[in-house]
Amino acid sequence: MTKRAQKELLRAVLEPRKQGALQKIADAISAGADPNAICPECSAPTGRMRAGSTLLTHSIHECAANAVKKLLECGADPSLIDQNGWTPWMASTLVDESKRDRIQEALTQHGANKTGEHIGQLAGAIYDGDVDQAATLIKTDQDLEVLSTFRIDLVGHQIRMHNAPMLELLLERNMTPSSTNLLNAVRGSNLAAVDLLLRYGMTPEDPDDNETPLMTAAAMGEMKIVQRLVEAGADVNRNADDGVEWTASFYARQAGKTDVADWLATRMSDATLSELDQLKATRDPKYQLLYDQATACESSSTDDLVEVLTEWDEKYGLTVGDAKGDSLAVELSSLPADLDEFLGEVLNLCPDASDYEGDLLKELTKNKKLLLWWD
Fold it and tell me: What is the pTM of this model?
């Protein structure tokens, strides 16, 4: 019965504004549910519950004043620290002003410890970029550890705002950044942020990522960021899962950033370069442009496209006119005997062209040309 009651309590707290939710909170606790339970990671149409929160700190973060009051009335500990380091009072300091007084009044009535009363003001100073005020308000590194689990990514906010002094303060006081922060610093062409993140111990790439910050910077042509990442240990030989040649140098060359591509290529190992040369030697030069442009779509890799084009070439003769990452132009030497059957093959390869079947057939019949594309 208690397990079922706990589920009912969790559901009611997750959707506190739903009709009857407050009564369900009371009923579930009466049936044995624990009002001080730790929340799992879950979500509902109305919001998300952060793992490690207590039911009370979650409700406070959600500004659900009535649910907070009901949980306290039913025995929730007004001073219990959750697994993310938040006390109910700390959480209340970040509540919208319209609900804060009601929530803090309820916590006070139930004897809440007010330790961490400065957290809301500190979060505001950090968000506003006020370095001096933030430095004054930080009592211990624990303050920033707690705020690193706040719903607003305060490190990421400094990167977006190009506020290097505040970013350095946070990193210096051990606020934990994420690999997403580094990627966003690269995407924002924010060399100062990239440098700070790396200097304060962030690794230049995550082994679980398919595409790395180095690949992103290379494709953008951000030479200084590329050089800083490589200096910090980013692997110039690493390739994305899509293909062995998809190195950072490949991304740069594909994007027309030849200076970056060449700089990276000179730092690649002889073994990697030899492997790439051997791979290139196995391919028909006729289709090299497709590989250079990484022409592919969600359902077909470059190799898949080349396989189909090779079959068409054997039957009708084929010339590649142009290729981009998401489009391809070809010309046939002779028309297929059964144009309807061939058009079916074309649309199977390129479903996005189905709305332009008539135009495709007209161009094919008149000029023996096909333009294929993938959205």
Answer: 0.82
Q: Please classify residue 201 by burial: count the beta carbons closer than 10 Å to its beta carbon, then call 0-12 exposed, 13-18 middle and 19+ buried.
A: exposed
Where does 240-287 have alpha helices with state H?
248-254, 258-265, 270-281
Q: At what angle do helices 213-220 and 258-265 cross, to 10 degrees?
A: 140
CA distance 215 to 239: 9
pLDDT (0 to 100) of residue 141? 87
Class of domain 2-109: mainly alpha
Domain boundaries, the chain: 2-109, 287-373
* pLDDT value of position 179: 87
Return the structure tokens found at 308: 């189909």
- Assess whether pLDDT exceeds 60 at residue 16: yes
CA distance 86 to 52: 10
Q: DSSP label at 38?
A: B
The encoded tokens of residue 304 equal 């898949």
3-state secondary structure (DSSP) of residue 160? helix
